[in-house]
Write a structure and sequence with these properties.
- By secondary structure, this protein is α/β, with parallel strands linked by helices.
- It has one domain: Alpha-Beta Barrel (TIM Barrel).
- It is 34% helix and 16% strand.
- It has eight helices and eleven strands.
- The strands form three sheets. Strands 4, 5, 6, 10 and 11 form a five-stranded parallel beta sheet that branches. It has a four-stranded antiparallel beta sheet with strand order 1-2-3-8. A two-stranded parallel sheet has the order 7-9.
- Strand 1 and strand 2 form a beta hairpin.
- The radius of gyration is 17 Å and the shape is globular.
- The termini are far apart.
Length: 251
């Protein structure tokens, strides 16, 4: 049986504790919530993140990079101009296909995170396979960029279970989910920069971890305006390296 939660993207499968991350979106600056999802204790148990300190108007910008669609360089240009740090979660395909962009990310002060080698459902593979998926990305990124550590993981498609979180934590990873997102990954359903801007700004809240996909032209075109308006509202963009809080966003 599947249980859909109103106002959320979550799916809870009653087949051994497999979850698809979802959350109640922020409105009017109030924090996003996972209280209704049924997996808060599991994320807390394994030190996973979905937002930061709710008392601070900090934002954490993250991108999922499964493949390149021609817009990451434009996004990097804006981040460099605006002096904003980001985390780019990459797959094995991206590492092999885009070494120059990976080098640029690291050279310009961004973090490269792990999005797995082959983008599998990591709740359905063995601990040994999980380790292999993550180790391949870490080693390949290191060979290309010289980045010697890799501390952050975003599970493909946001699918997770206790084993996946436990094994990745034992390997030194913090799983990073999100508290701001919208349907931006469909390259056939791009609706313009204003659409991206409106959907991101409507969800902003203190401590937000923002998930965007670099394949989206809308995101690339809206990036400068999103950053400028967020700063005008008193937000600052911080590196995920500085976020060492649990999923509740409390000290």
């Amino acid at each position: 049986m599947m249980l859909m939660v109103s106002g959320s993207q979550a799916i809870l499968a009653e087949d051994g504790g497999v979850y698809h991350f979802g959350f109640k979106k922020s409105k009017n600056g109030e924090p996003a919530s996972i209280d209704q999802e049924g997996f808060k204790e599991l994320l807390d148990k394994h030190g996973a993140l979905f937002l930061g300190d709710q008392r601070q108007k900090n934002l954490y910008l993250t991108f999922d990079n499964g493949y390149e669609n021609g817009y990451t360089a434009q996004i990097l240009d804006v981040l460099k101009e605006k002096k904003v740090p980001a985390v780019f979660f990459v797959t094995g395909h991206y590492v092999k296909d885009q070494p120059d962009l990976l080098k640029r990310m690291v050279n310009e002060g961004h973090i490269i995170g792990n999005h797995s080698w082959s983008h599998p459902d990591m709740s359905k593979i063995s601990p040994e396979q999980i380790a292999d998926e993550l180790t391949q990305v870490k080693e390949a990124v290191g060979m290309v960029t010289g980045q010697t550590t890799m501390n952050f993981l975003r599970p493909p498609r946001g699918i997770f279970n206790d084993q996946m979180l436990r094994v990745s934590r034992e390997l030194g990873y913090t799983s990073v989910f999100w508290s701001v997102a919208y349907k931006d990954w469909d390259t056939k359903q791009q609706k313009g920069a204003k659409y991206a801007f409106d959907h991101v700004m409507a969800q902003l809240h203190p401590g937000a971890i923002i998930l965007l996909h670099s394949v989206s032209k809308d995101n690339a075109d809206a990036m400068a305006q999103i950053i400028d308006e967020a700063r005008r509202q008193g937000y600052t963009f911080q590196s995920l390296d500085g976020l060492e809080l649990g999923i509740t966003g409390l000290p």
